[in-house]
Amino acid sequence: MIILNAMSQTPVSPPSRLVIASRESRLAMWQAEHVRDCLKSLYPACDVQILGMTTRGDQILDKALSKVGGKGLFVKELEAALEDGRADLAVHSLKDVPMIMPEGFELACVMAREDARDAFVSNDYASLEDLPAGAVVGTSSLRRESVLRSRFPHLKIEPLRGNLDTRMGKLDRGEYQAIILAAAGLKRLGLESRIRAYLPYDPYTPAAGQGALGIEMLSAHPQIKHWLAPLNDLPTLLAVSAERMVSRQLGGSCEVPLAAHATWNQNQMEIRSFVASIDGKAACMARSSAMVKTVADAEALGLAVAQDLIGQGAAKLLPHGLPG
Ligand SMILES: NCc1[nH]cc(CCC(=O)O)c1CC(=O)O
User: Fold this and answer.
1) pTM of this prediction?
2) Is 96 a catalytic residue?
3) Residue limits of the Porphobilinogen deaminase C-terminal domain (predicted)?
4) Same domain, yes or no, for 307 and 173?
5) Which residue range is the domain that position 293 belongs to?
6) Per-block average pLDDT, block size 10, for the chain (324 residues)?
């Protein structure tokens, strides 16, 4: 649970030094630098440093994420740096943050979301519809694979791992006719011009948290939450709270195609979600809208959507059944 701008009774003095742990990929570094710049403008006297590190998710590139135990693969080393005091904050793509965080860790804040859509990238084709039979499409996500297989059974879907630059390189060397990536990462790295088409939320619903940044901290250091509170973006916080609740209720793993996307505007939230089989032949889909004013309201809507999916038989699509 995140407290927005919690006005503490005892004034907290501004930070004098903050160390941000980050993965070393270009996107992760962009995100860490963005957080550093925001902190520097909030606290001009604060010394803000970035500690770059490699995670297991960056090292293992020859296997599908779903096969190497996707959960937390990109965050564990960063959490270790927080635990031994080498860093105060860890910046993550919220999509990569497990739905249930380990004991002692929490989100300090959720920052404004970039474009949450998936993007179609290709050198030779303008859209998925233009791809000929047998064309190879690269994606590392079972969620994207499932929708592609159901809509375009004539395409060949093949795994695509590595950081953004690696993935673009594989496309440019002709290993794939097209690839699907999160628009957010491409835009952040100045690669927006490579996007040939934006995939609509229906049916290409993104993963919970896609496009948003989450900053992780140790629960034992509550002053950090206070310092970072101004970086929270309310529409994003409410949307991702609902999305992450859906995902958490369904076991939130990378081993099953699972999508959840919410928007919030003037107290009105809309949310859509699906759970599907990898071949795209079976799917449960739910959408809902409600008046939402607080994180608790958003989570209640997420819970209702998860229950709708479960009522449709979503548990049968989950590799380990329902959690708990
Ligand atoms: N799973 C890897 C990952 N984690 C975050 C992003 C993109 C940026 C974002 O969603 O914030 C990506 C790459 C992708 O899905 O194309």
Assistant:
1) 0.92
2) yes
3) 238-310
4) no
5) 233-317
6) 50 91 95 98 97 80 63 81 97 93 96 98 98 97 97 97 94 98 98 98 98 98 96 98 97 86 97 96 97 98 98 90 80
